[in-house]
Design goal:
This protein has about 100 residues and is α+β, with helices and mostly antiparallel strands. Helix content is about 10%, strand content about 15%. It is built from 2 helices and 4 strands, in the order H-E-E-E-E-H. The chain is flat.
Length: about 100
């Protein structure tokens, strides 16, 4: 049986007005501005917050033997992404394209 997907699909159940639908949906907006996200309570920081006591620990690894730094985009990439060794240095396939 072929189905005409462009034909209107209105039935008797769809005749409900928007006002009737709005009445059935509970208002979840009331008081929601004061509730913190329980999964991530510190997700929002105020502009100008004092972060002088926060210490980030970042471990930076040097480029490995099978990696190179592209002299065009300055990203560290795997040797399989090496396109050529130009006069300006090593260039990746994305920058050479």
């Amino acid at each position: 049986m072929a189905t005409d997907y462009d034909a209107p699909r209105k039935s008797e159940d769809d005749s409900e007005s928007i006002e009737a639908l709005k009445e059935r949906v509970p208002n979840n907006q009331s008081g929601a501005g004061d509730v913190e996200d329980s999964d991530n309570p510190a997700a929002f920081e105020l502009p100008g917050a004092d972060l002088s006591d926060v210490e980030d620990v970042i471990v930076v690894l040097p480029a490995q033997d099978d990696e190179f730094t592209c002299m065009s985009c300055f990203l560290v990439k795997h040797r399989s992404q090496l396109d050529h060794d130009g006069p300006d240095g090593l260039i990746c396939k994305e920058c050479a394209a």
